[in-house]
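Hello Y.,

Per our agreement to keep a running log of every chain we model this quarter, I'm adding this entry. I've kept the format consistent with earlier entries: sequence first, then predicted structure.
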Amino acid sequence: MKTLQISSFGSPADVVELAEIERADPGPGQLAVAIEAAPINPSDLTLIKGVYGVRPELPAALGAEGVGRVIAVGDGVDAARVGERVLVVPTLEQATWRQQTVLDERNAVPVDADGDPLQLAMLGINPLTAYCVLHGYVKLAPAAWVAQTGASSATAGYVVALAKHAGLRTLNVVRRADSVKPLLDVGADVVLVEGADLAEQAADAIGAAPLELIIDAVAGETAAKLASLLKAGGPIVSYTARNRQPLSIPVVDLIFRGLSVHGYWLNRWLDSTPQETIVRTYRDLAALVGNGTLAAPVEATYALADYREAIGHAARNDRRGKVLFTFQ
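Predicted structure for the entry above:
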């Protein structure tokens, strides 16, 4: 069986290798799943570089999320699950950049057998992150303003869709002017390009209403420029460390206006959340994928054998969609 793995940390172009391994049978409480599609995420690339929140033992199999069909079950698992399509929950306990994977039953969430496998394969990380950062830190009433930095990312696109679904308004900050129209086209209320006058532009855009939540994907000073517009006691939530920059927030806003700063990591949420809540949340999000509320653009798909080209494509800054491995 073909799988992608690393034997050392470093540049993905240099250290990822295609290996042949024996197929594993599911043990008690486990399922064997034939993978249909598996995305390449920024978090995968940072893990390969050795700068993610965890450093797996080497050699390490790769790929955190994906979707596939159950092909075998171990003792204690209902045999009727064979043939079921399941989402692989991205706990990092199993790999998805391979033809088949074995996982504990709790990490296999049933999803629509007739749904788009590419969209369902992307359900595990970005949509759940978007949902948690949008709804996990403050109760937002309809028409509330939510701001997000790094708004051209896939996760940010899901934030826009989920906010629109909930009746919220979004102010989105991007780095390039050519990112403005695509966001407006999918329902963003306001899209601004980073600049020295960002706070003034944002204030003009939202009027007298305050921001009630800032979702940060950039760090640096961008969130600081928006902090003065956040309501007293409002939260700032950062969910990516890709740029390795400190989050700069004026101390006067922290002290005198009671703003709070939070870090969100999906793996910590999965570790601390009851299983029934995890399953229910994924099923709710899968239903939104099924009815078209949630979708991410796909720029390219690759066979596993073309992994070097696929990973290089996924690492490009000019991408306009996700890159996935697909399996026949």
